[in-house]
């Protein structure tokens, strides 16, 4: 075993960073045995000094992240700060100093992954980011390495624990969205400002990363269609139950059947209770990967939290340190297919459309004719009426988003349709 330690700089010491520091300190001998050399935590950069950080060596704390990265003797930089800046600048500085980087920064990777990969390649160092998607679940490495000889056609999953917790509580207790969010916040699953989670930004960044790796192309967060869960109502949950379904916020990445394009989207969807993703409860994540030779693979586990995310960070740290010792680098960016991202209007899926209509003869025929006019065929219809009002639930066969949108616009113009109460996609048939 090499006796000279590999030196590691840690940027960020919040929930994840403090757990990384603790594990590195308490398992130093095991890490050294697995890597083949000691690993030394050389410094920890934080925004504000003076806070009590249990288990974190106080003498390693600094507020000068740039000086820490620029020391010249750092072998690996672990970035768990998040956000775009100063994280991007610090990572690029680390590459210039010859340091490899382990990051959990999904937002940065989904926005500027091309630039970061290019800089890492030019510097001859590694950029690893298993912790950026689905916490402790090994997902990026299997896609990038284990399935490197296969053709991945689809990635479908639950990649945000906060939204899964909220939707699960709405389903299991009958709570409304606001009540379920309040419980998620009280338990620490939701941030004080939950926008990134509940509006789908977090899941969209992860979908961009997954689509890029799975299909060997460049996908940015801006190319991912995104809907959050803030408009999901108790009535939507009840409608799903009536169909034998549950509502989940799904990240869906697909290669087109003709192989000429890809799609990446994040939105709530009804999935049947028979689908394995329907049983994913609380704040857990699960991802299906469908490959040509391997078939359907499912990855399941805790998708967030200090310890689970730290586990993924440390797994990358071990891999990067091994590469350093061997004078090599791991798999880099693979974007040889250069497939364009198809707009959402061209994506084909099924829909659940709930309408409030007049309870009188001929309304159903009128509504059905609008669907037919736009080439959207109907699978099932459920109608309930009382005192002149009626609810009409239409489940379609597969149609494009553009065709469904045109249908809904026409329905809203009908005198007999009082309101289009909700529209939700149906997946996993």
TrEMBL record:
Pathway field: Amino-acid biosynthesis; L-methionine biosynthesis via de novo pathway; L-homoserine from L-aspartate: step 3/3; Amino-acid biosynthesis; L-threonine biosynthesis; L-threonine from L-aspartate: step 3/5
Q: Which InterPro entries match?
A: ACT-like_dom_sf (IPR045865), ACT_dom (IPR002912), Asp/hSer_DH_NAD-bd (IPR005106), HDH (IPR016204), HDH_cat (IPR001342), HDH_CS (IPR019811), NAD(P)-bd_dom_sf (IPR036291)
Entries under Pfam families matching the protein: ACT, Homoserine_dh, NAD_binding_3
Q: Does the keyword tRNA processing apply?
A: no
Q: Which domain of life is it from?
A: Bacteria
Q: What does this protein do?
A: Catalyzes the conversion of L-aspartate-beta-semialdehyde (L-Asa) to L-homoserine (L-Hse), the third step in the biosynthesis of threonine and methionine from aspartate.
Q: What class of enzyme is it?
A: oxidoreductase
Which EC numbers characterise this protein's activity in its record?
1.1.1.3
Going by the UniProt record, its keywords in alphabetical order are: Amino-acid biosynthesis, Methionine biosynthesis, NADP, Oxidoreductase, Sodium, Threonine biosynthesis
Residue limits of the ACT domain? 352-425
What is the name of this protein? Homoserine dehydrogenase
Query: What is the organism of origin for this protein?
Result: Kitasatospora cystarginea
Gene3D superfamilies xref list: 3.30.70.260, Dihydrodipicolinate Reductase, domain 2, NAD(P)-binding Rossmann-like Domain
**What cofactor is needed?**
a metal cation
* Protein family according to the UniProt entry: Belongs to the homoserine dehydrogenase family.
- Membrane spanning segments where? none
Q: Which reaction does it catalyse?
A: L-homoserine + NADP(+) = L-aspartate 4-semialdehyde + NADPH + H(+); L-homoserine + NAD(+) = L-aspartate 4-semialdehyde + NADH + H(+)
């Amino acid at each position: 075993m090499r006796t000279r330690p590999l030196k590691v700089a840690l940027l960020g010491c919040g929930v994840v960073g403090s757990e990384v520091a603790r594990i590195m300190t308490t398992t130093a001998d095991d890490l050294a045995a697995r890597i083949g050399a000691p690993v030394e935590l050389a410094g920890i950069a934080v925004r504000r000094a003076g806070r009590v950080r249990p288990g974190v060596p106080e003498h390693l704390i600094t507020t000068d992240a740039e000086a820490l990265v620029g020391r010249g003797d750092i072998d690996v930089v672990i970035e768990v700060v998040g956000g775009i800046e100063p994280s991007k600048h610090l990572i690029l500085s680390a590459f210039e100093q010859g340091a490899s980087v382990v990051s959990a920064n999904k937002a940065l990777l989904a926005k500027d992954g091309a630039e970061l990969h290019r800089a890492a390649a030019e510097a001859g160092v590694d950029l690893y980011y298993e912790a950026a998607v689905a916490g402790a679940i090994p997902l990026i490495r299997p896609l990038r390495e284990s399935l490197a000889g296969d053709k991945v056609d689809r990635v479908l999953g639950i990649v945000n624990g906060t939204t899964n917790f909220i939707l699960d509580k709405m389903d299991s207790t009958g709570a409304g969205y606001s009540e379920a969010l309040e419980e998620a916040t009280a338990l620490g699953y939701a941030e004080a400002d939950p926008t990134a989670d509940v509006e789908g930004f977090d899941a969209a960044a992860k979908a961009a990363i997954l689509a890029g790796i799975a299909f060997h192309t460049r996908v940015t967060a801006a190319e991912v269609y995104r809907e959050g869960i803030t408009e999901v109502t108790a009535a939507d949950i009840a409608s799903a139950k009536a169909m034998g379904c549950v509502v989940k916020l799904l990240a869906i990445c697909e290669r087109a059947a003709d192989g000429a394009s890809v799609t990446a989207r994040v939105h709530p969807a009804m999935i049947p209770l028979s689908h394995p993703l329907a049983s994913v409860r609380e704040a857990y994540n699960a991802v299906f990967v469908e490959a040509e030779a391997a078939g359907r693979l499912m990855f399941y586990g805790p998708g967030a939290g200090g310890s689970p995310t730290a586990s993924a960070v440390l797994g990358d740290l071990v891999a990067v340190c091994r590469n350093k010792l061997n004078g090599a680098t791991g798999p880099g960016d693979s974007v040889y297919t250069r497939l364009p991202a198809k707009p959402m209007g061209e994506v084909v899926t099924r829909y659940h459309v709930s309408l409030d209509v007049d309870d009188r003869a001929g309304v159903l025929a009128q509504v059905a004719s609008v669907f037919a006019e736009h080439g959207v065929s109907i699978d099932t219809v459920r109608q309930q009426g009382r005192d002149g009002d009626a609810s009409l639930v239409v489940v379609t066969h597969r149609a494009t988003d553009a065709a469904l949108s045109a249908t809904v616009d026409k329905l809203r113009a009908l005198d007999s349709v009082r309101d289009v109460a909700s529209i939700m996609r149906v997946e996993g048939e």
